[in-house]
Amino acid sequence: MNFKLKMARQPILDINKDIYAYELFYRDEDDSCIFDDARYATSSVLANALNQVGLFGSVGDSKAFINITANVLLTDIIYSLPNDKFVFELPADFIVTNKEKDALQEFTKKGYKFALDNAIFSDEYYNRIKDILKYITYVKIDTSMTDIELLEEKIHLYSDQKLIAQKVEIPEIYDAYLEFGFEYFQGYFFSKPRTIMQNRLESKYISVINIFNMLQHSENLDEVCDEFEKNSELSLQLLQYINSTKLVQSDELNSLREIIKKVGKDKLLQWILLVIYSKPVQTPNNTKNPMSTLVNQRIYFMVGLIKKIKNLNLKMYEEKVRYIGLLSLLESVFDVPKAYYLDKFDVDDEIRDALLAQAGDLGRVYAIALSLEKHEYSTAQVLLRHFHLNVDDIEDIVDLSAKIS
After folding, report:
1. How far is 117 from 124, CA to CA, in rounded Å?
2. 2-199 adopts what CATH topology?
3. Tens digit of pLDDT for each residue in 47-67?
């Protein structure tokens, strides 16, 4: 249900050696940084940082430096990104025409920040970029390619920019550039680029999750029908399911859209969860997926427990504990972190806190279920006291839930 994504990051430190930012790098499946298409590499890094790992997982509260080309600068991609988190690095061979200059002017007006990557002190380079320096916040100098005497002579050219020394590999280089007024530092002396590797969901399962979210939050089945039409494999599975269960009579099968509307939200939700829980696991002799059995047992117990708790809104809590039960095992199904897939499922904060921190009344109910599944009865007893219950009070639902298949 998933495959690996890779990118790399290297910290950029301030004069106190605290992390100020990370530079994000492209990596392919073989952990290589070599690419033929710079625009593809930039898009890949952005997609991984924003859509898969998540921006917080990529850089935390720090800024993200990322290399771009003129082709990317002249698109609308940048406008889709938060202006307070990204710094876009322009390569040393960047050619400035009126188009690039106008684009930089517009982006800086909107609060976006730019850096010159591998800036040098030659007359040719400076004459090429001097007209855009007013739009540049950072200048990155490659210490391995820069003569110290030339640096001392020419550093005033970038007096209006914040200076970053990169490829700092020994303490002497750090000290020298610190004396020249550099504010930020990057290189092996501090940290090598580290590969970020994480499982991610295949696009076809993201489509399934999209449909699940639509069914949860919208009364309009037309959107659901549109999503099914984008996924022919899922549509075929639904038709096979309809044919097997006879939910709709064969003479009523006029179109997929009509079938979906006749089946209705509740049955579609049940079927979508069947797809999620049963598809990834191959079991011998076509036996029932054990994950599906466990989720049914967990839901049965949690619903039974809230019925024994006084002063709870039973109707509201029953729906929510069912949802928590359904979501609680997807970490094993998808093989991705729980926080990651919860971002894909559009869950509210109460359910998210219950699943991630076992917080609130819903979180306690979930924690009790987990404790009893692990036979940690003393832990369950402590948690049950909050609801003025003990283990003996729930013995009946524990026994009945164990018989659910």
Report:
1. 16
2. TIM Barrel (3.20.20)
3. 666 655 667 777 888 999 998
